[in-house]
Amino acid sequence: MTFVDYYKILGIEKTATDKEVKKAYRKLARKYHPDVNHGNKEAEKRFKEINEANEVLSNAENRKKYDKYGKDWKHGEEFEKAQRQSQSQYQQHGFSGGYSEQDFSDFFESMFGGARTSSRQSSSRKYKGQDFNAELHLNLKDVYESHKQVLTVGAHKIRLTIPAGIENGQVIKIKGKGDKGLNGGPNGDLYIKFSIKNHSKFKRYGNNLYTAVELDLYTALLGGEITIDTFTSKVKLKIAPETPNETKVKLKGKGFPVYKKENQFGDLIITYHIKLPTNLNDKEKKLFKELQKIR
Q1: Do 236 and 181 sit in the same domain of this protein?
Q2: Can you give the residue range of the structural domain that contains 11?
Q3: DSSP state of 251
Q4: Is the pTM of this model over 0.85?
Q5: Residues 251-265: tens digit of each pLDDT
C-alpha cells in the first residue's frame, strides 16, 4: 500500500491543532467541491482525498494511530492487542519485554503472509478479520432526515440508520461487520463511504444552503412581499424598497441539519437577482423616459 501523507493533502504541519485541521479542510472542500467544479475529474479526485484526510486527522484516535503506524494505521489496534497479550505472557513466566515497536513490520508479515514465526505460533495467534469497504449512493433529499436502510454486503444484510446531515464523501465505520477473524479473532469492520448527488436548486456547503431568487425591478424599487422555496417548504419574505441587485438574505435555521445534533440546522442564504423588464410597449417606454427626465 502506498503511503498517503494526509498532512500534505490538507497543507498543514504535523503539529497542527484540531482547529487548524478543521479550517484547512473547510477551505479546500469549498475550493474543490463538485458543485463548483462541474465535470472536473481532477477536482473530484482532490475532493475525495481531502475528505479522506479529514476523516483521519479530525478524529483524535485515528490521528494518533496514523502518526504512529503510518499507512498501516487501521491495523494498529490489532498490533497493540498482540503486544499486550505478549507482554502478559512474558510477565506470567517471570520475564519482561514482549513486542517492541520494531516488531510492527514483523507482525504484519505474520498477519498477511511471509511470516518468520513458526507455523505453531501462527496457528494459535488470533487475528482480526479483514475490513470491508462499500460506497452508498444517495440524493441530497435522502440525507435531510435520518432514515433506516438495509444494505447487502457480501452475503450479509445490514440494517443501517443513516443520520441526517451526513456529507458527501464522509465515511462511517460499522464495527464487526467485516470479514470473520482468524483463529477466533474479532471480525473486521465495515467502512461505508457516502456519495451524495444534488439535483436540487440549492447548493450545500457544510450545514448551509445557498440559492438565488429572481426579483422583478418594480418590487426591488418599491418594496413588497414575495414567496420563496426553502428546502422543505415555502416562506414569505418582505422586500425593502430600493433593494440592490445581489443582495443576500440569511434565513436562520432554514439550512441543512447538523450531523448527529438533533434539531440543529444551518442557514439558508438567498441572493436576489434583479430581473429587468423586456419587450416594453410604447406606454412603458414613455413612462421610463419620463422617469429618466425626472432623475
Answers
A1: no
A2: 6-124
A3: E
A4: no
A5: 999 999 999 998 999
